[in-house]
Amino acid sequence: MVRDLGNLDALGPEDRERLMEYLDVFGKPNAPKRERSVGVICYSETKHFGNKIPVDDGPLDKHEMHFSQLYANDYGRHHKNVTNQLAAQGVDANKCMLYLVAVPDVDKLRVEFYDSLGIAPALADVDLTVSEVDEDE
C-alpha cells in the first residue's frame, strides 16, 4: 500500500529502500508484530454543515474554525458511540485508530468518488450506516 499510494518519490533511492525494508512485514517472519486496527468512517453531518455563518471580510479560516468548534462539541457523543460499537464487535479500543470524516452528504460523495474512478457505484448493495447509540444507554 505504501509503495502504491505513498509519495516515496520524494525520498532518495537509499532512503526509499530503507523505508520499504522497515515496512516489509512479510520478509521478516520472526519480527515482533503488534495488532493494530485503523478505520475511517465517512458519514453525513447535515446538522453542522447546515449551521453556516455568513461570508464576510473576516479571517480566512473563520468557517473552518466555526465548523471545528461545532464538531468538537460533539466529541463526547461520537466517542461514546464509537467505544460502544467497538466493544460490541470485540475490538480493543486501545489497539485501534479511528478517523471520523464528516461530509455534507456521504451518498453524493460516494457517487462522485466512484464516478471519478470511472466505476458505477452499487448503492443498493452497500449498507455503510453506523448505528447511533441511544443517549439513554
Protein model, in words:
The chain is α+β, with helices and mostly antiparallel strands and 137 residues long. The chain has two domains: 1-33, no CATH class; 35-137, no CATH class. It contains six helices and two strands, in the order H-H-E-H-H-H-E-H. A two-stranded parallel sheet has the order 1-2. It is extended and about 55 Å long. The two termini are 39 Å apart. Mean pLDDT is 79; it is low at 131-137.
**Assembly status:** single chain
Distance between the termini: 39 Å
- The count of DSSP E runs of length 2 or more, i.e. the number of strands, is 2
- What general outline do the C-alpha atoms trace? extended
Biggest sheet strand order reads 1-2
Number of helices: 6
Whole-number radius of gyration?
Answer: 20 Å
Task: Tell me the β content.
Answer: 5-15%
Strand-pairing-aware structural class: alpha+beta
Q: Provide mean pLDDT, rounded.
A: 79
Q: What are the low-pLDDT stretches, counting only 5+ consecutive residues below 50?
A: 131-137
- Give the fraction of residues assigned to helices: 40-55%
- What's the number of domains? 2
List the helices and strands in order.
HHEHHHEH
Largest sheet: 2 strands, parallel
Features:
single chain, 137 residues, alpha+beta, two-stranded parallel ribbon, 6 helices, 42% helix
Secondary structure layout:
Elements: H1 2-5, H2 13-23, E1 37-44, H3 46-49, H4 62-73, H5 75-88, E2 96-103, H6 106-117
Parallel strand pairs: 1-2
Explain briefly what this protein structure is.
By secondary structure, the protein is α+β, with helices and mostly antiparallel strands. The protein has helices at 2-5, 13-23, 46-49, 62-73, 75-88, 106-117, and strands spanning 37-44, 96-103.
